[in-house]
Amino acid sequence: MIGNREININDENPAIILANQNPETLGIHDLQGTGIALKKLAAKDVDVILMDAHMDLGARLWSDKEGRFPFFMRQDLAPMVEKKWVQGDFLDPKVAAANNAKIAHDLKQKFARAHVIFLHFPHSAYGDASARTQRTIAFCEEFNAYDIRSIPLTEVDSSEFTNSASHFKPSFYDRMAGMCTATIG
C-alpha cells in the first residue's frame, strides 16, 4: 500500500522495475507478471517490437549516494527506496533519444525479421504547458533525426483519457494499432 492505493506487485514493484532495466532480465516487466526476458526471445519468431520513451521523459533518475547506477523510479515509490537511493534530475531528451535509437538498432540486429516501431508517447495527458511536454517535443526532434520507423507524436482526445495520465481507453490503442499496421505496410 502507498497512501490509500494498493500496489500491483507486478506493475509497481521496485525490484521488478529495476530488473526490467537490466540486460539479463529486460522485458520481464508486464502487468500480468508473465513477461519473458528479451534474451530468451532470441529463439522465438518475433514479428513486431513496440517501444516508447514514457519513463525516459516522465521519471526522474535515481542513483546511489555517489551518483552511480542510475535507474528510473516513479515518484510515488520513493518511500520504498529513499533511505539508500537519491533522486536526481530527468534524463536529458538528447541522451534519451540517443539511448532509444541505440536500443532500436540493437533490437533490429538481434531480431532481423521483426518490425521495430517506436511510439512517441503522448504528452497531452500532462497539459500543454508542462515541462514534460517540452521534454517530449525536444526528444521527438532529436529522435526523428535517426532512421527508425516510428509513429508520430499523437494527441489523445479527452474522450480517450482514463484516470491515469499514462493509460488510455481502448479506442486510443485501437488507433495506435492501426497506425502501426499502416507503418508496417
Backbone CA Rg: 17 Å
The count of helical stretches stands at 7
What can be said about the biggest beta sheet? 3 strands, parallel
- The count of DSSP E runs of length 2 or more, i.e. the number of strands, is 6
Q: How do the strands of the widest beta sheet line up side by side? A: 1-5-6
Low-pLDDT stretches are: 1-10
Helix-and-strand structural type:
alpha/beta
The percent range for helix content is 25-40%
From the N-terminal CA to the C-terminal CA, the straight-line distance is 45 Å
How are the SSEs placed, and which strands pair?
Layout: H1 9-12, H2 14-19, E1 48-52, H3 54-58, E2 60-63, E3 71-72, H4 78-81, E4 86-90, H5 93-110, E5 115-119, H6 131-143, E6 150-151, H7 170-184
Parallel strand pairs: 1-5, 5-6
Antiparallel strand pairs: 2-3, 2-4
What does this molecule look like?
With 185 residues, the chain is of the alpha/beta class. The protein is built from 7 helices and 6 strands. The strands form 2 sheets. A 3-stranded parallel β-sheet has the order 1-5-6, sandwiched between helices. Strands 3-2-4 form a 3-stranded antiparallel β-sheet.
